[in-house]
Amino acid sequence: APTLRFDDVTKDFATGTRALAGVSLSVSRGEFVSVVGPSGCGKSTLLRLASGLEGASAGTVDNSADVTSFVFQDPTLLEWRSAQKNVELVGELAGVPAAERRRRAAEALDLVGLAGFEPQHPRALSGGMRMRVSIARALVAEPGLALFDEPFGALDEITRLKMQTELQRLFQLKQFAAMFITHSISEAVYLSSRVIVMSGRPGRIVEDIPLPWSYPRP
Ligand code: ADP
Ligand code: ADP
């Protein structure tokens, strides 16, 4: 069964804006789906509905993942906590015993290339490193579904290229189901196994394109 399924979903905001209309899709484990389209076509709304942060106005959203993680463009780290403590937060909220969550957080930071940076506070880290902490925090919970809202949009080009490679490697390792919003077609094509193109107001899916390759990349 797919991890995520939208069936004929409409989203109306209280302001009267219809952000989505007639949206149907499904995403399964091992699929990395990019979502592209002009500003205002409902990409972020689609992700918020997928996460359960917002409810559909009509139609159904079915998210069967035990854990869903959301990564935003702004890494939203807690400035008064070290990198390690930022990643441990997830385990604290879930009641994971201290030793176990320390181990998992250190492992997640190692996976994103931040071994040795555990005690650093966010302000001491570069933009790319902060984004890595944010990704470690998302992946430490072993999500079945990971949602990315333009996570690399604020990074310089070199750092963005590094992060794309990094994320692809993590995805190959963990094989969650992923939805990734981006303004960059090349980023979509590089990262994903499928590209969803949205357009219009209200936003609709106008194309759903499987890419002719799969992981691992040749
Ligand atoms: P995108 O991510 O593609 O730029 P959004 O999902 O952010 O598009 O927005 C889709 C439409 O819904 C836009 O017209 C936007 O102004 C509107 N919208 C988004 N969030 C809200 C909200 N909380 N209240 C009212 N309107 C909203
Ligand atoms: P990133 O590509 O992760 O943003 P940068 O390009 O900013 O990293 O920095 C390049 C390298 O410099 C990093 O991989 C890291 O080894 C080192 N570095 C960056 N910030 C710090 C820091 N605050 N303390 C120590 N080393 C750092």
TrEMBL record:
Source species, domain of life: Bacteria
Keywords: ATP-binding, Nucleotide-binding, Transport
Domain named ABC transporter: residues: 4-218
GO terms of molecular function: ATP binding
Keyword presence, Hydrolase: no
Keyword Nucleotide-binding on entry: yes
Protein name: ABC transporter ATP-binding protein
Source organism (scientific name): Microbacterium wangchenii
Taxon lineage: Bacteria, Bacillati, Actinomycetota, Actinomycetes, Micrococcales
